[in-house]
Amino acid sequence: MTRTSVSLRRVLGLTLGAAALLLLAAWLLMTQPSLPGGRPATSAPGADAARLEADVRVLSTRLLPRDFEHPAGLDRAAAYIKGRLAEAGGKVSEQVYTFTEWDRRNRKVERGPYRNVIASFGPDTEELLVVGAHYDAYGSLPGADDNASGVAGLLELARLLGGRPPALRTELVAFTLEEPPQFGGADMGSARYAAALKSRGARLRAMLALEMIGRFSDQPGSQRYPLPLLRLFYPGRGDFAAVVGRGELNRAVKRAMRSASGLPVVSLAAPASLPGVDYSDHSSFWAQGYPAVMITDTAFYRNPDYHTSQDTADRLDYRRMAQVVDGVSTAVLELAR
User: Fold this and answer.
1) b or e along 259-283 (b: 16 or more beta carbons within 10 Å of the residue's beta carbon)?
2) Are the C-beta atoms of residues 295 and 26 closer than 8 Å to each other?
3) Residue 78: other Cβ atoms inside 10 A
4) Less CB within 10 Å around the terminal CB: N or C of the chain?
5) Crossing angle, helix 150-163 and helix 318-335, to 10 degrees?
C-alpha cells in the first residue's frame, strides 16, 4: 500500500468522522433528547374526546365565518368561547381593541372591535403562565384543524384546570386575528396581549400556544419536513405531537407531555428562519422576550387540507387530540409548581 493511499484513507476517515459528529450535534441541538420519566404526581384527569369533537363541530360549522372581514362572526365565536370558559370556573375577561388602516381607495378606515377572550385559573400570583389558541380561521373556511382544534383543546383544558387548579395563576387566552392579513403584525390578537403584558411588567414563566392539534396519520410518508435532513431525525409517520420552541422550556413541556399518555411527543429547537417555526401566536411572545413554545400536529407539513374547504371536523382524530390535551394539562401543572 502506498503512502498516498494511506493518507487518502486517513483523510476519508477523518472526514466521515467529522460528518458523523456534525450530524450527532445537529440531532442533539434540534431534537433535545431526554430520558423518559415516570408519571408525575401532578397528572390530571383525562380529557374527553367527545367534548373536543363537539366544540370543533360548533366552531367549524355553526360559527362561520370567523375571520378578519367578519367581526360579527368573530364576536359570535368569542361569545361561545367565553360561555364555555365561564362554565369551567374561569374568571373571564376580554381584551377589546380596534385599529385603523388604509383601504383600497386610500381612505382611513377603523376596523373592529376585535377581542381576545381570557380566563384565569389558580391563585392571583404575581407570576403567571399562559396557554393560548387563536379562534379565527383563514377567510370563510371551516378551519377545523386550523384552529378550532386548538380552541377546543383550550376549552377542555379549562375544564380540567377548573377541577384541579394550578399552583400559579394561569391565563387561558383565545386570540383573535392570527391569520393573514394580521399575522406577524402589531394588530394580531396575541401581539396585543403580549405587548400589554410587557407594558405592565408582567412576569411570565411560560407561554404554550396550541396550533392545530387534531390531525394524525399512521401511514408511512404522511409526515413532511421543511428540510430533507430532518427526515434523519424525526418520524416518517404523522402519529406524534410536536413541541417547537427554544431552551429548557421545550424539554420540560416534552417530558411532561410524554409522561401523561402513550402519544409520541418530539421537540424541535430551530431558528425562526426555518419555515413554520414561528408561524403561530408563540412568536408574539418571543418578540417581547418571553419564553414560549408551540404545541402542534405540524400543520401543513402533515395536513393536506390546510387552508382549504376540506379542513373539516370529520377528518380529525379526537382520541389522540385528547392525549395532546392530557399532555398540556400535565405540563401546565408541572410548570406551575
Assistant:
1) bbbebebbbbbbeeeeebbbbbbbb
2) no
3) 23
4) N
5) 50
> By C-alpha distance, which of 172, 164, 64, 130 is closest to 293?
130
307 domain residue, yes or no: yes
Structural domain contains residue 12: no
Domain of 197?
A: 26-335
Residue with cell 364576536: 75
Provide the CATH number for the domain around residue 223.
Answer: 3.40.630.10
Per-residue pLDDT reduced to its tens digit, 68-93: 999 999 999 999 999 999 999 999 99
Q: How far, in Å, CA of 244 to CA of 100, rounded?
A: 33
Scan for cell 382544534, then name that residue.
Answer: 149
Contacts with 138 (C-beta within 8 Å, 6 or more apart), sequence order: 67, 146, 179, 180, 307
Residue 117 · residue 173 · CB < 8 Å: yes
20 part of a folded domain: no
Please give the tally of structural domains in the chain. 1
What span, in angstroms and rounded, lies between the C-alpha atoms of 64 and 202?
A: 35
Distance CA 257, CA 263 (A): 8
**Structure confidence at residue 102 (pLDDT):** 80
DSSP three-state, residue 225: coil
Domain annotation covers residue 319: yes
Give the chain's residues under pLDDT 50: 11-30, 37-38, 40-44
